[in-house]
Task: inverse folding
C-alpha cells in the first residue's frame, strides 16, 4: 500500500503501525510493527541590503545577499541564483574592485561578479548550511536616483525548495 502525504509545517513526522493494526480478510496481520519517518523541510529564504544605503554617484556600496536555511540539514542550489542589478535611473554595475566575500561553503569560488558587469551570480551547487550564509559584492551607480534591486519568488532554487517570498533593497 502507498499513500501520498503532505505537510506545510516543517518538522519530523513518524508514522507507526503497531503489531496487528493491519489485518487481511484471511486473518493475517502485520508482525513486526513498522514505522516510516518523513522530514518536511522549511523553504529557504533570501534577503538583501545595500551598505551604506545611500551613496554619491560613482561611490561604492556593498550589496549583501543572505540565503537563509532554518533546517538542521544543509541544502544546495539546484540552479544559478542570478541577481540582475537595476538599470534605472541608470545602470548599476559591479564595482571596479568587487571585494567579493562569502560565508557559504566554497567561499568566493561560488560567486561570479565581474567588474563593470550587471549581474551577481551564486553558482549552481553552492551549499546552504544550517543557519544560512551571506555573500557580499561591491557595486556602484553613476547617477543620482532611487535604485530598487529585487529577487523574485522562485529565483532561489535549492534542494530544500524555492524561496517563497521575494526580497528587494533600495539604494
Result:
Amino acid at each position: 500500500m502507498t499513500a501520498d502525504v503532505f505537510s506545510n509545517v516543517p518538522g519530523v513526522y513518524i508514522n507507526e503501525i503497531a503489531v496487528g493494526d493491519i489485518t487481511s480478510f484471511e486473518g493475517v496481520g502485520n508482525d513486526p510493527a513498522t514505522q516510516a519517518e518523513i522530514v518536511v523541510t522549511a523553504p529557504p529564504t533570501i534577503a538583501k541590503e545595500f551598505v551604506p544605503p545611500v551613496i554619491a554617484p560613482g561611490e561604492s556600496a556593498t550589496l549583501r545577499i543572505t540565503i537563509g536555511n532554518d533546517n538542521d540539514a544543509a541544502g544546495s542550489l539546484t540552479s544559478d541564483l542570478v541577481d540582475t542589478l537595476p538599470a534605472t535611473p541608470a545602470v548599476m554595475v559591479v564595482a571596479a574592485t568587487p571585494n567579493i566575500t562569502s560565508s557559504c561553503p566554497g567561499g568566493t569560488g561560488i560567486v561570479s561578479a565581474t567588474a563593470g558587469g550587471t549581474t551577481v551570480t551564486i553558482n549552481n551547487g553552492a551549499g546552504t548550511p544550517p543557519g544560512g550564509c551571506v555573500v557580499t559584492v561591491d557595486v556602484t551607480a553613476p547617477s543620482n536616483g532611487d535604485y530598487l534591486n529585487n529577487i523574485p519568488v522562485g529565483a532561489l532554487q535549492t534542494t530544500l525548495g524555492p524561496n517563497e517570498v521575494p526580497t528587494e533593497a533600495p539604494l
